[in-house]
Please model this.
Amino acid sequence: MPQKISRIYLTGFMGSGKSSLGCILANTIGYGFYDLDKEIENSANKKITDIFKDSGESYFRDLEAETLVKVSKSSHIVVALGGGAVLRKSNLDLTKSTGKLVYLRSSASELYNRLKFKTDRPLFQTVDNVIISEEEALNKIKLMMAEREPIYNQADIVFDTDNKTLGMSVDSLKNYLEKHFEISYEKN
Model:
């Protein structure tokens, strides 16, 4: 008999589809949806970029961990984690002990293509808010991915999103989850 799951956590690099795919997946299977970054912004009444700027990354990571603990107490949910959330071991352990962690894997070039027109991504800007070149952006993504990939690969499920539309990714992930796990549709 397949294992029941009532919490699905999505991790991966920015642009991998955590928020977009997560929201649609949750709706498709009848689960609630949390975007961890949005939850942090709502509770802090500040944008993530302002939290980083005003209080630093360490403070943000503490808020992120506290918010994840709160969210993980709910059931029948899909949670889009921030790209760096699982870099903190306690967050990685919490997601794996309370649900299934899915790594939405994308290549650096695919991520660049998804992110290059987003104006809210500081990854592609210098300190002076100048847009960096494609080569610089790709190198930055590759460097960050090399650091994060070993942690992302500790997920329960590694799901490739390259060369798939959002709809195809949602359908494919939903089918995979339903084939290997029991999606608990009744709320406790």
Notes: The chain has one domain: 3-107+151-180. Residues 134-152 form the longest helix (19 residues). The chain has a mean pLDDT of 89. The beta strands are 3-5, 7-11, 32-35, 77-80, 100-105, 157-160, 181-183.
